[in-house]
Amino acid sequence: MLDLLEWLAETPGPYGLSAISTALDMPKSSTLLMLRSLTERGYLERLPAGDYALRRLPGDGAAGQGALLALVGPYLARAVEETGESGFLAVLEKGRIRYLNKILPAREIRYDRDISMTRAAHKVASGVVLLAAGDDAALEAHAEAAGLSDEERAALLSAVDKAREAGFFLNLKGVVEGAAGAASVIRDATGRPVGAINISGPQPRLAAHAALVGAAVLKTATEVTEELRRRGSRISKGGEGKP
């Protein structure tokens, strides 16, 4: 069961019983029993199509994304080193952005965000790119639920258009005064948006190096997405044994 959990953490799904059994070189009967047990305990979720997806790892909260955290960490650390600014992994939950982690740069003046607090999605770069990754109906539903004024709705639609065109969004007017951020969306092997890479820092610095920061978040999110696709493609083709 530990092998199964470790594999799921390193190889985000969802995957069916046959793919998991093949990848781990285990009998389907034994694999199914473990999958059912992990689902009952809330570590896995069984999707309508019958596939299994990791919900959390032991030690995570009920809505933990341990698998995504483990995968993104090295990529995000490199983006922080390249830009000299703070890096975050963000997810969208019920119209709000939650930050799963942060990696701070080795410099005295830096932006250290309180990641225990959630932010309204339409107010931050990570939220804009995740809303942009959805369809227009979901975007309108968010605007309605958030009670946006006509002016705020127009500003959000403009930001979403920019994010869809460029592949990232730079927000020079952050929730925290004097802060700014850029973000790009991460997609899983099925193309579903699962999170966003965010680089944030003091507004004057990000404005001066907007091209560098924008390129960094786009490259990092693309690399993570490609890694998720490679892993998904490998398993869908029958697996290669234990990673």
Lateral arrangement of strands in the main beta sheet? 5-4-3-8-7-6
Distance between the termini: 15 Å
Into which percentage range does the β-strand content fall? 15-25%
Helix content range: 40-55%
Strands, total number: 8
Radius of gyration: 19 Å
Q: Main beta sheet: strand number and arrangement? A: 6 strands, antiparallel
Count of discrete alpha- or pi-helical segments spanning 4 or more residues: 9
Unreliable stretches (pLDDT < 50, length at least 5) are 234-243
Backbone structural class? alpha+beta
Mean pLDDT over the residues: 88
- Apparent shape: globular
Q: What's the order of the H and E elements?
A: HHHEEHEEEHHHEEEHH
Main attributes of the structure:
single chain; 243 residues; alpha+beta; six-stranded antiparallel sheet; two-stranded antiparallel ribbon; 9 helices; 8 strands; globular; disordered C terminus
